[in-house]
Design a protein that fits this description.
The structure is a single chain. The protein has 494 residues and is mainly alpha-helical. The chain has 18 helices and six strands. The chain is 41% helix and 5% strand. The strands form three sheets. It has a two-stranded antiparallel ribbon with strand order 1-3. A two-stranded antiparallel ribbon has the order 2-6. It starts with 49 loop residues before the first helix and ends in an 11-residue tail after the last helix.
């Protein structure tokens, strides 16, 4: 059972919407996705009861599946810049997304602002919870857990921001007056420190598991695994190793069949460390807000729009016989394991199978595939982080063990396919682990940032136009700089 976010409209529960990382505004630009809320509850009467606290925290999770967090803005900033994905769809449809693929994007591009806005909305909702719930008279254990959940999501959003933009404004409380609205960028080292503190605080409180009514909420394992990834981006290998070792002892495992791990029946599985919860409640028209699957679904079918598609580079990256190739990529002309025949002709030769919802499960009248969860952290990622940290700290035996555990699941008993890595040479192991991350986590919004943190941007992305000293980060949205009247500065080269 998924965590239920029936009170999906933030306005219903009195939370203040935010359109900018800098300014709290009374209203945000609306899109065709917005549904006018009914029976609004005035903010002045909110943050009084335990029920208010529950609504406030649920609103944080609900916003994670928004357009800005999971559709065009997120895919543009976190996926299309890599070599495993490209724009897709027809050539003229949303051609502006190509600027992320060839690194010609400018600060005025709308998806940058959408992504920035989406993360600061998350942060704002978290800050409201963290500022207000301490004053509510309620169950003490639940209060502590709710604050920890808010810290987890705030850390997640700041991690997404710092990877994408470098220095960003750090706001850890709701602005009290106009003088606090306009704040400058904070050095990324301080952003990382704030993220690590939030995640350590969260991990100290959050439970390892939940009952059925609360599945999908942040757990101790999620906080520790995300903290490991944050440490990995800073090269803190001892910390990565310690955190991943701990998570590996919490009962997570790999779903035996890689392809099945991304289907609806395996959401929140034993492999899931954290997923954004998406669903369709037929009786609630506004429940099907996620467009994650819709925008990536097979174009020309009942399933979607055909954006963010796999590249020929990705298709060629898999070893011969690796079943993850067919489990990651829907090829034009194939029949999926669920029996959907994909047309042999069309705009794109390939589509993302990890976001795929079988055609028989598409519900007329709702966003196609809106019930498909977004996998944010999987146990295989934890194993590969562990392998990389072990190798960087000169423990080749552990590195091979964790790496080969991922490869063993991929070969799934097929003799001679994906043999174990046996080398003890540090550089050989490093390359093998990086390669495994490429194919295991393909189309999951890690590849672009992985290559950059590995110092390989020029070698891997250079042929597409990537330039060192500039393209390690995206430009700060010009709208934010304009609003700040120059308090915010632009990244070099933009």
């Amino acid at each position: 059972m998924k965590l239920n976010y029936k009170n999906n409209y933030i306005q219903k529960i009195g939370l203040i919407a935010i359109c900018s990382g800098l300014l709290v505004l009374p209203a945000c630009k609306k899109s065709f996705l917005d549904v006018e809320p009914q029976a609004q509850q005035p903010a002045v009467s909110f943050w009084k009861t335990q029920e208010d606290a529950t609504k406030g925290v649920n609103a944080i999770y609900a916003n994670l599946r928004s357009w800005e967090n999971t559709a065009f803005p997120a895919l543009a900033v976190e996926s299309i810049g890599g070599d495993d994905a490209e724009k897709g769809s027809s050539a003229n449809d949303a051609s502006y997304l190509n600027s992320f693929d060839n690194y010609t994007v400018t600060s005025t591009e709308g998806q940058l602002l959408g992504f920035w806005t989406g993360q600061y909305k998350n942060i704002n909702y978290c800050n409201q919870v963290l500022d207000n719930i301490p004053n509510i008279s309620m169950d003490a254990n639940l209060k502590s857990r709710y604050l920890a959940e808010a810290k987890f999501v705030r850390a997640y959003s700041y991690f997404r921001l710092v990877r994408a933009f470098g220095d960003v404004p750090l706001r850890l409380n709701v602005a009290k007056d106009v003088s606090e609205y306009n704040i400058p960028r904070t050095p990324k080292a301080q952003i990382y420190a704030a993220i690590e503190k939030d995640l350590a605080d969260a991990a100290a409180v959050l439970p390892q598991t939940y009952g059925s009514a609360d599945i999908g909420r942040a757990t101790k394992g999620a906080a520790m695994a995300l903290n490991a990834k944050v440490a990995m981006y800073q090269g803190k290998w001892d910390q990565v190793l310690s955190l991943t070792n701990a998570v590996m002892g919490m009962g997570y495992n790999l779903v035996p069949n890689f392809e099945q791990g991304f289907r609806l029946n395996n959401e929140n599985s034993v492999e899931s460390v954290f997923e954004i919860q998406c669903e369709i409640i037929p009786s609630i028209a506004g429940s099907a807000t996620s467009q994650y699957s819709q925008v990536q679904g097979v174009r020309g079918s009942v399933a979607g729009w055909g954006f963010n598609v796999p590249t020929a580079t990705l298709a060629a990256a898999f070893e011969t016989g690796d079943p993850r190739r067919d489990a990651t990529i829907i090829f034009r002309g194939e029949t999926t394991p669920q029996g959907d025949a994909i047309a042999a002709t069309g705009d794109n030769p390939m589509y993302n199978q990890k976001s795929y919802v079988p055609f028989s499960l598409i519900i007329t009248g709702f966003n196609e595939g809106a019930q498909q969860n977004v996998r944010v952290l999987r146990f295989s990622d934890v194993l590969l982080m562990n392998a990389e940290a072990a190798n960087e700290t000169n423990n080749a035996a552990l590195a091979r063990t964790s790496l080969n555990r991922v490869r063993a699941r991929a070969r799934n008993g097929a003799s001679g396919i994906l043999p174990d890595v046996t080398s003890s040479d540090k550089e050989t192991l490093r390359q093998a682990i990086w390669k495994e991350r490429q194919v295991e986590l393909a189309m999951e919004s890690d590849r672009y940032f992985d290559v950059i943190r590995q110092g390989r941007g020029t070698a891997v992305f250079g042929p597409k136009g990537w330039k060192a000293g500039k393209n390690e980060v995206w430009p700060i949205p010009s709208n934010e700089i304009d609003i700040s009247v120059g308090v915010l500065t632009q990244n070099p080269g933009y």
